[in-house]
Specification:
Radius of gyration: 22 Å
Oligomer: single chain
Helix content: 40-55%
Distance between the termini: 53 Å
Bound molecules: 6-O-phosphono-beta-D-fructofuranose
Number of helices: 12
Strand order of the largest sheet: 3-2-1-4-5-10-11
Structural class: alpha/beta
């Protein structure tokens, strides 16, 4: 913990963009300006930090972005920042520009980078942001609610055509190695089967459950699959094609891909981003550093970045059983 209050902070968004990042940029900027601090925005995440690509941010610069998806600062995945040389260069640029503290808005890899900078002595606060919701130290991350909503909209739309034709459908959503988005969208969408990396389902079992849904009189049958599952859309499409004659029905496959993290953030994501980013500024004002700002049990919480880096959070697997029971 540093005891000094910063007069000049920098903000960056890093890793995969997430709807709500702009709301976080706006909130952090205006909360810092309200304290009389200067604010710089780093372009393209850690890559911009290494390239010394920063712009001053005023209250007007962050106007009209609350409802926009993506990040106006840009984002990147920067392998160079994982090296000591990259981190030294970033720290040198920040020192030359008299930046006293850094706010890192991002997910797992980004907060691991933030932990490294904090360990090097820079006051750093992380803001939990990734659609995947796999970050330790928080129940929920910025962008997850929107990603679930986008996935659910796709399920609801596909359901009408599935019902008209009495077909089986598969929707694959994002989440990298985490099944949270698929699990929640599957539960909310009434999926017959949910396949996630944390609880794999064999293709034959997927086919069995889809067929059973039709046998119970359902006009549609849905599988929701996380991209990180071993039997993801690609694998299941292949399996169903190979076994078409035996199972007696086909599977229509929709891969949502990057659609899941595009577009305008939900109200929940805007509010979450606003609260977390404002709390990050409060934390810096109180002399805090090396912490992730998240939300746990409905409250804003802080967790040491050293406890967050390299760790992941599991989805609530009890919901899988509930989804299965309710899909009867
Ligand atoms: O981590 C966020 C995320 O959208 C994951 O869900 C996905 O697997 C990954 O990023 C995609 O990364 P990229 O946009 O670099 O292809």
């Amino acid at each position: 913990m540093t005891k000094q209050t910063p007069g000049h902070i920098a903000l960056l968004t890093s890793g995969g963009d997430a709807p709500g990042m702009n709301a976080a940029i706006r909130a952090a900027t205006r909360a810092a300006l309200a304290r009389g601090w200067r604010v710089s925005g780093v372009r393209q995440g850690y890559a911009g930090l290494i390239a010394d690509d920063m712009v001053p941010l005023s209250a007007r610069d962050v106007g009209g972005i609350l409802q926009q998806g993506g990040t106006v600062l840009g984002s990147a995945r920067s392998p160079e920042f994982r090296t000591d040389a990259g981190q030294r260069q970033a720290l040198a640029h920040l020192a030359r520009r008299a930046v006293d503290a850094l706010v890192v808005i991002g997910g797992n890899g980004s907060q691991t980078g933030a932990a490294a900078l904090a360990a090097a002595g820079l006051p750093v606060v992380g803001v939990a942001s990734t659609i995947d919701n796999d970050l330790a130290g928080t129940d929920v991350t910025i962008g997850t609610d929107t990603a679930i909503q986008v996935t659910l909209e796709a399920i609801d739309r596909l359901r009408t055509t599935a019902s008209s034709h009495r077909r089986a459908f598969l929707v694959e959503t994002m989440g990298r190695d985490c099944g949270h988005i698929a699990l929640m969208a599957g539960l909310a969408g009434g999926a017959e089967v949910i396949v996630i990396p944390e609880a794999e389902v064999a293709p034959a079992e997927v086919a069995l459950r889809l067929r059973a849904a039709h046998q119970r009189g359902k006009t549609h049958a849905f599988a929701v699959v996380a991209e990180g599952a071993r039997h993801n859309a690609h694998a299941l499409a292949q399996w169903f094609a190979d076994h078409r004659a035996d199972i007696g029905f086909g599977l229509r496959v929709t891969q949502l891909g990057h659609m899941v993290r595009g577009g305008s953030p939900t109200a929940t994501d805007r509010v979450l981003a606003t609260r977390l980013a404002a709390a990050a500024v409060d934390l810096l004002a109180a002399g805090g550093s090396g912490m992730l700002v998240g939300q746990t049990g409905g409250r804003i919480t802080t967790t040491p970045l050293t406890d967050v880096a390299g760790r992941t959070r599991m989805p609530d697997l009890s919901l899988l059983e509930l989804a299965r029971t309710l899909a009867q």
